[in-house]
Amino acid sequence: MKVTKLFLLILFLMISSGLNAQMIRGTIRSSATQEGLSAVSVKVKNSAEGTYSDDRGRFQLSIKKKFPIVLIVSSIGFEAREIDVNSSAGPIDIMLTPGAILGQEVVVSASRVVQKKLSSPVTIEQISSKDISNSPQLNYMDMIQGLKGVDVTVSSIGFTSISTRGFNTSGNTNFTQIVDGMDNQAPGLNFPLGSAISLTQLDVDNIEVLSGASSALYGSRGLNGTMVMTGKDPFKYQGLSVLVTQGVNHVKNGNTYDPVGASPYYDWAIRYATKINEKMAFKVNGQYTQANDWVATDSTNKNGPGTRFTDPNYNGVNFYGGATNADINPFLQGALAGDPSLAPLIEPLLAKPNYVSRTGYPEYGYLDNKAKLLKVNAEFRYKINPKLEAIVSGTYGTGNIVYTNDTRYQLKNFKVGQYRAELKSNNWFVRGYTTSENSGRTIIAGPTSQYINEGWKTSYDGATGGWYPEYTGALLEALAGGTSIGDAHLAARAFADKGRAELGSAQFNTLKEKVSNTPISEGGTLFLDRSKLYNAEAQYNFAEHIKFINIIAGVNWRLYSLNSKNTLFPDKDKPINVKEYSAYLQLAKKLAADRLSLSTSFRYDKNTLFSSPKVTSRASAVYEPVKENFIRFSYQNAYSFPSNIQALQNTLNGYNSYSSGGSSLLLNDNYQFNKYPPYTLESVSAYQQSGDANQLKRFEYNDIKPQSVNAFELGYAALIGKRVMFDVLGYFSTWKNFIGYANVANTPGTNDVTAFKDHSTYVQYNIAFNGGQTVNTYGYAASVSVDMSHNFLAKVNYFSDHIKNKNNSQINNFNTPNYHINMEFGNSGFGKKQVWSFGTTLRYKPGYFYVVSGGLAEGHVPSSAVIDAQVSYKLIKARSGIRLGATNITNKYYSTGVANPNIGAVYYVTYAYNIL
């Protein structure tokens, strides 16, 4: 009975509240096209009450204020209006006039508060949902390539790595990617997952990219930049949207080798969002991409100038298996001992080492090039009151893509999930989220191929022979028959490879399945990474309580639960837990009649792998001498704790070869460097060639520690006559304890350096370590945007990054050309009712030198000029659009890094429903 009375009381209060409220309805349209405008803000002046128009431009707003009231109606790209409303008698028809866009963009990530992009204290680039709709690129990750200051490395169709200010590589652990407040990194690998579990194409509201050090606001590892992505609010963006792209790639141009024939490209995305009532809304998203991936085909020999037909020790960049090599002189000496009459043939060969590699497999036909990527997302929002909102969301991604690091990795059936719960007010938020990863059946190209070779026929078996003894015998037989040395090596390889497991054969597939399904810890190459990340954070803005200065404070707690079953980390017995604690404080003040903005921030970080905490700071000043003209100066001091990979990685990357973190505990306990000292791999190779032990050079190592950077930036941004916007800047950075990589080797079990002569008796490592010398980087950039009226917009940007005092003992991943030039030109609506539009972009990079971590490859990346273009037509009554376009329209294949694939054209047609 008491429950019934309580229910009736609540029902009465709800009805009473509804009776007191008054409903205003209306439609908002563009005066130029008469189309209904979605996501337009409708607010009651001097009140917290407000709403947004739906996907057809309709809105309804329940208000408690008495008439008359004033509605403020606004949307970027249109002139704001104030509408007097005297009653709720009938619907209101509101026309918005298109207005200036340049200079109206607002950003949040630069200072954690809403501000104009023009007045940002640091360099920031932005992509909006409207930019994405008008872009000729297939997805927003491709669009990011054209932003000022941004470098990318494309490992495959589904894996693009982003960086800024020169440090460009796949899987950059010093670049932070944040999606709806959540760090998008893989819990174990610590680098951003690109588009794997980021926003779907239809759910992007805004993307902001901060160049350079940003750890003062976003924590450790933000040294090379931060990208902040915000999804669409279901209260604001409502309705059903569909994007279907069908295309074709691998269209051969006759000038570039591409083993794949013309193939279909599919990209389908769907989004549905609805406002149930003024308090509740939800959205669901899905996107599926499928295509035959670009294939890495670099045949450059890593062991010298020869080819696989001229060098017996050939080891191609994208030919896997040739990393297994050996000096056949011991086998020649054995043959001579058995038959002294062979001396005339053998003794001349013994004058120098004779290294021979096993036969490798090309990538095409070895790694599955069928790229698939599925992302789904759901979010529910509940407004507890007009100033407080509860949010829960979940995102799940899975697929098959290829990634480049110390070798090529096929991420097959990987799975990543990210889940969030958040309370958000105008001045504060409390957020918790977790990320979990499942590496699926990841195939490590290099070591898997080496084990396949060994599974078919061992390199050497004292009891039964092996591949190298067979090779040596066939070589001598060919030489005895009068064959030249070059042809004799080819004949020897053909003989030793008889019956070899060829690509696609049942024998090959059986061996590949066995090796790739056996964990690394048990002698195979399978990752068992099931690592997780847990994060909790809170932030408060004291603006309502402290008026004379703006204060923002926050705290963050994070737990990495590293769980790879001893296949990625030394976690054989149990998962390794790494915790991080941080707190930050930002102070900001406006002076000189609000023309001068000063801000400073401090951040405290503690990582349980390292004994000492670190403090990060930032200070900035922005001065507006003339309206819409801003001079900015900033200083940022940033620390980066070594990532879990840089500290603890223990991963097989080849036969008797490992990628290793720089923790001395790992190096001493696992690799016994304290007993069997390491030597630089370069000096080991010199010793093998000369036989002179004096060529060997010890590698001096210490426990890895945090790196830091002090960065200064001076910039000037201005908007002229609402038609021209430009931004120029210069920066200079000083790095200390710079973390790079070195290739070394030791001989476990013996200190006899002659063991380095036999590849099977020494072990190679690619080790993260701190360089002792200071490294400086510097650069400059400029961009100009011109509103040419009648919806024509042109943009151009130029930037250049350089490194000084480079530590030549390290692989530092500063892989960037001397300069970049990006251009855009388009029109967002022309013709009758503005139903036609087009967009074109040009990205130009001169050739540059590129080094891949882990010793996979290094070399020259050719210059590239990539043109993308698209033309669109709106079907207004059907609320749809048809787009016809192409990326890399000239089909001149290009690459973004050594060992990565060459990328050709994709010609496509897109159907878009209910999209801005």
TrEMBL record:
GO terms for cellular component: cell outer membrane. It is a multi-pass membrane protein. Residues 1-21 form the signal peptide. Coiled coil: none annotated. GO terms for molecular function: siderophore uptake transmembrane transporter activity. Its main location: membrane. Keywords: Cell outer membrane, Membrane, Signal, Transmembrane, Transmembrane beta strand, Transport. It is found in: Cell outer membrane. Residues 117-226 form the TonB-dependent receptor plug domain. One of its GO terms (biological process) is siderophore transmembrane transport. SUPFAM superfamilies: Carboxypeptidase regulatory domain-like (SSF49464), Porins (SSF56935). Belongs to the TonB-dependent receptor family. This is CarboxypepD_reg-like domain-containing protein.
